[in-house]
Amino acid sequence: MNWNDLKYYLTVARVNSITEAGVELGVSPSTVARRISELESRLGTSLFNKRSTGYFLSEAGKGIFSVVDETEANFQFLERKLANFSDAKARPVKIELPELLGQYVIIPELLALRRSEPGIRFEIVNSVKNSKLSSRGSDIVVRLSMPKSGSYTTRRIGIISQAAYCSQAYLKEQGRPSSTRDSVNHTLIGWNEGMRNLPLAKWFSELTAGSDLWLETSNFNLQLESVCAGIGIAALPKFVAEKFGLKRVFEDYQPLTSDIWLMRSIETSSFEHVDIVLKHIENIIKSKNEEIAFE
Length: 295
Fold this sequence. Notes:
- By secondary structure, the protein is an alpha/beta fold.
- The protein has three domains: 3-62, Winged helix-like DNA-binding domain superfamily/Winged helix DNA-binding domain (Arc Repressor Mutant, subunit A); 85-159 and 258-292, D-Maltodextrin-Binding Protein, domain 2 (3-Layer(aba) Sandwich), CATH 3.40.190; 160-257, Periplasmic binding protein-like II (D-Maltodextrin-Binding Protein, domain 2), CATH 3.40.190.10.
- The protein contains twelve helices and eleven strands.
- This is LysR family transcriptional regulator.
- Belongs to the LysR transcriptional regulatory family.
């Protein structure tokens, strides 16, 4: 079996979309679909249930996911560990970050480390879904829910607030919802089938009394872009909504507040460069507290 084929399987399984998988892999959606089809033919079984809303793992696909995911993590960890014992100056650190929090809060602040620690190199995994924790997966993980397993040291470093927002243009055209019951008369943007167990997806469904979504997506960036374009209302983190000048709606409804957890693989306990990055991320979150959370 070709490992590259399994990389296509893993990517699609994580994003539930051949289009997004193609962007991540640097190929066309048709190439992704063809490689998945060829893999399924060789295995003699369907790995995905293919629907208009995306690609979702079949029973067979679910059955092999943890094994393939762990195999990938082991390969990547081996590469990083060998780099630490080589003569090369580069010291790699793999970090898993929540989407948007990573993109708009943490990653821009890594510039300071590039200046002070030029030997450190980064691999960033930026996602909405929590991946299965493995001590040989990411060296550092930032999560918005307390992990229940995994060989990581864990500590709480802050909180994040999320609420419902729309653009000024949307308010001008559609008006402000008078109450949560009025959500049925507005254009709602939310998560697709594969993401509806996310705490934020459940919170938004409760806020809008289960009203139908006009637009379903599998990632935060598409929701953010849609809200900024004036299409509708979505649940977004406070810091990114304020950055783009969005307006909060349903203000009487309690925002979703989550703890921010900083985790470190026990396999990296002797790596000084991971110590440096860990402390830097903690300082970033603490310094941005007023931007990230409501008072």
